[in-house]
Amino acid sequence: MPKRERTPTTYSRITQPMVRDEKGGRLRAATWDEALGRAARGLDAARGAFGMFSCSRATNEMNYVAQKFTRVVMGTNNVDSCNRTCHAPSVAGLAAAFGSGGGTSSYEEVEHTDVILMWGSNARFAHPIFFQHVLKGIRNGARMYAVDPRRTSTAEWAESWLGLNVGTDIAMAHAIAREIIHADLHNRTFVERATTGFAEYAAEVEPWTLQAAERVTGVPAAAIREVAHAYARAERAQLCWTLGITEHHNGTDNVRALINLALLTGHVGRYGSGVQPLRGQNNVQGGGDMGAIPDRLPGFQDILEAGVRRKFETAWDTVIQPSQGLNLTKMFEAMESGELRAVYCVGENPAQSEADSEQAVERLSRLDCLVVQDIFMTKTAELADVVLPATAAWCESSGTTTNSERRVQLVRKAIDPPDGARDDIDIICDLATRLGHPWKYAGAEAVWDELRSLSPQHHGMTYERLRDNQGIQWPCPDLDRIGPGFLHGRLWADDPDERGRRAPFGIVRHDPPVDGIDEQFPLRLTTGRRLDSYNTGVQSGSFASPLRRGEYVELCPEDAERYGVRAGERVRVASRRGEVEAPVWIDTALRPGLAFMAMHFPDEVDTNKLTIEANDPIAGTAEFKASAIRIERLTRPAVGS
C-alpha cells in the first residue's frame, strides 16, 4: 500500500518564557524574571490544591528535585508522571508480590534463557534495543512464545503465536496455571518454601480448563497446553510484558496473573529466570525510583512509614504529609471538581496523551494556574498560563537515567542548549527560592549525592562507579561491591530468615473490558506503538523516516470487505466518546473484529478521542487497549457501481 502524501506537524523549540495575561488571552513573550514571578504567585495562591506532573524523559536528578519541590515547597504528595499512563500496574503488581517495583532480571539474561514468554508486547517495534537481546537469545536456542491479539512483528519470530481476544489475559494465565498444576509441573519446593496462598490460587484457577479458556480467549486449547508445558519444563524462562498487559481497567490484576506463573514454576530469583516489564521511555523506571509518584519517597520507600518520613524530614528540614497523594488520574478528577487548582507540568503532554483527550483538555483549561516547563510548544503548553523553556535532558543536561533492567547510567551533556533555555533543575530551584526555599545545587552530581544519602538501594552508585562500570543496577547499597543483576535470589535460600518475606500469589479474576461490543459499536479497537515514532509525536514527528506513513485505522481484509472500504479510503471512526477521520490500512496481522491505531499523530488523527477513561482502581491506568468502535464510510459508491 503506498504511503499517502502528508505534511508532518513541526513543533517549535521554546527559547523564551511566555505568560498569559488573562484567561482566554494569548501567550506573549516575557523575561525570565516576569515568568518565574508569575509562576510563583500562581502556585503560591494554590497551596493545598497543587499537583506536579514530573517527566519520564528527564534525568533522575530532575525527578528527585521535582518531587522534593512538591513535598517541601508545596507541602503535598500530589506528584506523578507518565508512569501512570503505562506501567503503574507493573510497579503495583511487582511491589505487592516482591516488595519492590522493578523488573527482576537483566537484559543479558534473556540471551541465556530457554523460553521467552512475550505477553502483550510488540517489543520489536516498541522496545527495539531490548529486542536485540531477545534475538540473541533465540539464536542461542531459546524458544519464544508471543501472546498478543495481533500477529505483530515480534510474533513473527515466535515458536508459536497465541492470538487471544483483547482483555482475556487473566483467563489465559489461569488456564496455563491450571494445566501446569494438573500436569504436576509446578515447582513444589519453591511454592512451599517461598510463596503463600497457593491453595487459594489453585482453587481460583481450577475452573479454567483448556476448553473453557479457548471459549473465552479464542486461542486453541492445544496451543495453551503447549505454552504451559514449555514454560513449566524450561530450566530457565523469562516472562516479559508491556502495555498490552497494563493499559486495562484491571492492569494490576493482569500483572499479578503473570507473576503468579513465575511463582508457580520458580521462574524468578535465578539467573535467566525472571519477570520483566519493558519500559517505553528512557526514565519511566527512574522517575518512580526518585519518588516522583504519590505513595513512595526516593528509593521506593513507603511514605506511610513514620521512620522513613522522619529520615527525609530531617534531611529536608520539613514535615511530610503522612498520607498518599493524588496520582495523575485522581489529579485530573480533582481538576473537574475544583479541588486541584494549579499544576506544574514538566516535560509531559497530557492534553494529547491522556485517554478521552477532549475531556483532558477541558479539565486542564479549568485550572487557575498551569505552568508548563518543556522544550517544545506542545498542545499542553498552548493551554498554559506560564511557559518555561527547558533543556533537552538527553543531550543538553548531565545526570543519570534508569532503564527497564534497573540499570542507572550516566547522561553526559553533549551540546549547549539554545540561548534562552535553562536547565530543569535550575528552573525548579529558582521557583523554590521565590517560594521561600533558597535551593542551590552545584550540579547534577550534588543532587545525586543527596539522593544516595537517603536511598539505601542507590547508596553505592557514585558517579565515578557509574562511569567505570557503564552503569549499575539497583540495589547497590555498598561502595565496595556490586550485586547480581537479578532480584529476589533470597527466595531460594535454605535459611527461612534469609528468605525473608514470602511472595504471595495474587488472587485475581477474569474481568472483561468495560467498553462492551454491541451492534452499534461492533469492533474492538486496540492501540500501540510503531517503530518509527515516539508517543504523541512531539519529538519524532518532524523528523523524516522511510517507515512513517501517518495515522491509519488498521483493519483485517475480512472487516474491510464487510464494511465495503478500500485501502487508503478515508473513513469515520466513532466510539462512545468521540469520533475521528482516518484512512484505512489493510493488515493481515489482525483478526476479524479487531482494529488497531497508534497515538503518534494526534494533530492529524487524535486517537485518544476514542479511548475510554476506565481506570485501574489500584494503579489509575486507563484502558487504552480496549475501546469499542464502529467504522462509517464518508462517501457512498454511486448507484450501479
What can you see in these coordinates?
By secondary structure, the protein is an alpha/beta fold. Helix content is 33%, strand content 17%. It contains 24 helices and 27 strands. A 7-stranded mixed sheet has the order 2-1-15-14-13-3-4. A 6-stranded mixed sheet has the order 21-23-22-27-20-24. Strands 7-6-5-9-10 form a 5-stranded parallel sheet. Strand 11 (296-297) and strand 12 (301-302) form a beta hairpin. Helix 6 runs parallel beside helix 12 (251-265). The model has no long low-confidence stretch (mean pLDDT 93).
Layout of SSEs?
Blueprint: E1 18-20, E2 27-29, H1 32-44, E3 50-53, H2 60-73, E4 79-80, H3 88-98, E5 115-119, H4 123-126, H5 128-139, E6 143-147, E7 160-162, H6 169-182, H7 188-194, E8 195-196, H8 198-205, H9 210-217, H10 221-233, E9 237-241, H11 243-246, H12 251-265, E10 274-277, H13 284-289, E11 296-297, E12 301-302, H14 306-316, H15 328-337, E13 342-346, H16 350-353, H17 357-365, E14 369-374, H18 379-382, E15 386-389, H19 393-396, E16 399-402, E17 407-411, H20 424-434, H21 444-454, H22 463-468, E18 472-473, H23 496-499, E19 503-504, E20 523-528, E21 553-555, H24 557-563, E22 570-574, E23 579-586, E24 594-598, E25 612-615, E26 622-623, E27 627-633
Helix pairs in contact: 1-20, 2-20, 2-21, 3-12, 6-9, 6-10, 6-12, 9-10
